[in-house]
Design goal:
Length: 260
């Protein structure tokens, strides 16, 4: 399966490779903290895929942030704040960091690189100081939907800079062509979508890979933390965003963590 940027930016795996570069971790990979691992039976039975939000979803009241941009959350704080299995739709809950998470993907056009780096934050020139992730795969035996949340904390104003540069790049790079470390090329159509503001800043992006599938992500900045919540429909054709209530819940947990 081609390793499009959209697939590389999805953290979920189950059994064999669902999306290239997100295979099930080895014993040397980051371990879960008391949560079901990628090679264990799901805590919740697989359920039919939910209906993710439309491109312009309805939403609860916006969540504001009083977080300090100068105090990055630690990895331990992020892991505590990441959505739990009970917060997500029923399915296989995973928290293991995927292989290839920091694999370098280069945009064909240099002006598009900031968008690439936002979708793959671990690979950017500015590295996060803390990372946590969780995902649920829905459908059996072959997952049809993946919902994932990733948290990245930065020092100073790096999170603000990364998001700002990506928003500018998105306006110029609706069709984003990239190459991975092995030279394999892929193209994904991205578009900014309407979404209520959460935290200090919000950017919603729908995505349609040339090699199939559809979905999108909502990126929210809370102080010096970037929250990325994604939905991928493996055989989908209409790009959608993750459920707004789910994104709001993740933002609320980060706001609470930032306030201590």
């Amino acid at each position: 399966m081609r390793k499009s940027l959209f697939r590389l930016s999805t953290v979920a795996v189950v059994g064999s490779v669902l999306f290239a570069a997100t295979a099930c971790g080895s014993d040397d990979d980051k371990k879960d903290s008391g949560k079901p691992a990628a090679n264990t039976t799901a805590t919740n039975p697989p359920a039919a895929a939910p209906s993710p939000s439309a491109v312009a979803p309805s939403t609860p009241a916006p969540v504001s942030s009083a977080a300090s941009a100068g105090t990055p959350l630690t990895a331990a704080q992020l892991e505590k704040a990441v959505l739990a299995a009970s917060d997500l739709p029923q399915g296989m809950y995973l928290t293991r960091e995927p292989r290839g998470a920091a694999e370098r993907v280069t945009a064909t056009s240099p002006e598009c690189q900031p968008l690439t780096d936002l979708l793959l934050p671990r690979q950017g020139a500015t590295k996060p100081v803390g990372v946590a992730q969780a995902a649920v795969t829905i459908g059996a035996p072959t997952p049809s939907t993946v919902i994932a949340t990733e948290l990245f904390s930065y020092t100073g104003t790096d999170a603000e800079t990364i998001l700002g540069k990506a928003r500018t790049a998105l306006g110029k790079c609706g069709s984003l062509s990239t190459k991975d470390a092995e030279g394999e090329a892929s193209t994904v159509k991205h578009a900014e979508a309407t979404h209520p503001k959460l935290g200090d800043d919000t950017l919603a992006i729908t995505s349609t890979p040339a090699d199939g599938g559809a979905g999108g992500q909502v990126v929210v900045r809370v102080g010096s933390t970037l929250i990325v919540v994604r939905v991928v429909e493996v055989t989908g054709t209409t790009p959608k965003l993750p459920d707004t209530a789910l994104v709001t819940k993740q933002v609320e947990k980060i706001v609470a963590a930032a306030k201590g």
